[in-house]
Structures are given as C-alpha cells and as structure tokens.
Amino acid sequence: MRITQGTFSFLPDLTDEQIGKQVEYAFQQHWAVSIEYTDDPHPRNVYWEMWGMPMFDLKDAAGVLAELRECRKAHADCYIKVNAFDPARGFETMRLSFIAHRPPEEARYRLRREECEGRLLRYTLERA
Amino acid sequence: MNRSFDLKALLAESGVGAVLDELDRELVGLAPVKLRIREIASLLVVEKARAELGVAGTRPSLHMCFTGNPGTGKTTVAMRMATILHRLGHVRRGHLVAVTRDDLVGQYIGHTAPKTKEVLKRAMGGVLFIDEAYYLYRPENERDYGQEAIEILMQVMENQRDDLVVIFAGYKGRMDTFFQSNPGLASRVAHHIDFPDYSVAELEAIALRMVAALGLELSASARQALGEYLQLRRERPNFANARSLRNALDRARLRQARRLLEAGSVDARMLTTIEAEDIRASRVFEAADASPPAEEATC
User: Where are the alpha helices (DSSP H) in chain B?
Assistant: First the structure.
C-alpha cells in the first residue's frame, strides 16, 4: 500500500531535481529545512528520527541534497521526509513536509476491529 | 556548424566586464592578481561559448590559493571573486563563507566531521574562503583533528566541484609547507595566486581612498608626512601593508580629534582635514630619530 502523507503524496515520487526546486523555494521563504527518517510511518507517529540538525542559514539546495543522499545510503529501508520550518512570528511551525524516499517494500497496515462493552466497536490501524 | 561567436558580447552580457573594471578601479596595484582573474573570467566565457556549441567539456576546477603577506587584499579579492564567479554562472549563489581553523576543526573525537560538513553545506552554491589555511595541518601533533577536516574538504572539492569553489589563503612560506605535506590537496588546487606587497606609491594611493571614504582629506604637508611615515614603517617589523596603513590613519584621526578639541572652535575645513602634525606625532618617527644611536650601541 502506498503511504500518503505530507505534501505531494498523491503525485508520483519527486525526482532529486524536483526536491531541489522545492528546497530552493523553502530557502527563498527563509524556512529552515530538515531531514527526518522512520521505519514506522503510521499516521499517528509524529516522532520521526532527525537526520542531523535542521539546516539553518543554507543558501543553496545542494547541501540538503547531499545530506539526503547520505541518509538514503544509511537508511534505504526507511521512509525519509524533508521538512521546512517557518520561524516567522505567528507561524513558527512546519510549512512544508514531503516524503523524499520510500523503502523498496512499503509498510502495510490493516484495520483492526475490537468489540467493547455494550456492543461498542473500536477501530484502529495496525502494522501488518 | 560554422556558427561564429561574439565573445566580447558574451562577456558584456554576463555583466562581468563591469565587475572586472570595478576591480581595476577600486583596487590599487595587484597587477598579477588582476591578470589572473581576467584569465579565469575569459576561460569561463570561452567555456560558455563551447557549451552553447555543444562541445561538452568538463567544468574547469576553480579551487584557488591566495598567498601573500598580511594586508595585501586577499580577503577583499576573495569577496570580489564570489561575485565574479556568480556573474559568470560558475557558482549558483555567489555568497562568500569565510572561515578559519576554529570553524572547521572540532574539539573532541567525532566533532570535526559534522562541523566541517556543516560549513561546507553553508558554502554550497558559493565560495568557501579558508583564511590561514596552514593552521589546519599541525605536523607536531599526530592526533590533531585538522587532518580529518582536510580529508573531508578534499572529498567535497573533488566530488562536488559544481557546488562550491574553495579558496585557501595564507602567508606564502607557510602555505608552501602546508601543500608539501598535503600533496592530495595541492593537486586539487589549480590556481595559485601570489599577492605582491604594495609599494609606497600604491600605499599612498590607497591612503587617499581610505581617507576619502571617511569623508576626510589630507593636507599637502600631511600627504608628504604620510609618504615618509610609510617609508619608515615598511622597514619596521610587523608591517601589514594596507592594514598597517589603516591603523595609522585611525591613530591620526584620534590625534586630529584631540587637537581639534584643544583648539576649541573649528571651521568645516579643519574638521575634515588631517594635518602633518597628526601623522608626525607617530612613534615611528621617534623610533627613526632614536634608532641610529641605538644601533651604534648594539654594534
């Protein structure tokens, strides 16, 4: 199952050139770009591992792409996302976040149904 | 395929001619440096024409080494270099990141690599200027982390030649030993540019520009005093060319300010003029008067 989360996730995977363009855009907006990876892309998992520090005061996307390549080499079987943080007052949050790498075999989830008191049904996503 | 190229037009189009002329106008002396920069600019323009023709050459390696005594304008030229390379389309952004050993080398094991990579990432798309680069390599301490920084630097200089240009700078003799002990680095630096010392006449021309930039002027006698001062100062130790000159002018401004306050009421001309006495009060003149007997004593 193709994991869809973050920006552009219903489009085909971005090429490195396209990722570079997005990063350039983020720099133009004065956003700080960071790279994170995880082996658990559950939509409720907000704690992805940081790949190094967020990259402040970079001027060019080449630095980010070099880091992304390193991260891909080290964690080819993980999901990697590129985040852009807007430090402007009033936002102070992620403005852009997209998946930049998927493992060859995508994570699979199934829906689990649980019966509780009073015939109540609960549903949850569970790693298959 | 017999297209002809107007290289002059190509040069004009890139706007780099203006930067080169500015370089000629604003920097005094440094003839060999200017010539080399013109050559590099021409090479890039010619490469551009070749690329348009579809003759795909590899991008020239433009890592450089600036050697010269202190105060000969290495940093100033490096700043211009970033602009020139940007106009010619060799680097994408044209910013300059100036660092020294402290910014590259870490303090404990495992600290150097991330620190160096951080700096390299910041410099990507522009020019990385490493001042006093010979401090990176300390042969007397075999566990020094400088070597690690050099290795990372070399790797990036080779693999990401398109992304950044590295300029090393330092004093001639020490840079030579630095490159001798790091042959890998030496072979990756294509351009070695030597900055000559300024002559007294050039220093005087620089002084006039510095003073004009401060909104001041030198009286005719002050100009003559400055010439004598420079002649004497050059003979003394720790002479740092334009930097010494700037310090001397700063001290002259201090003396001028004190003189004006003591005078009480001043007019506009006095406020903006540095007189000979402001310069002649320098210790350098005292030492010159005092030195002949001192020399006799030691002989």
Answer: 7-14, 16-26, 31-53, 74-87, 101-104, 112-123, 146-159, 172-181, 183-188, 200-213, 220-235, 241-263, 268-272, 276-280, 283-298
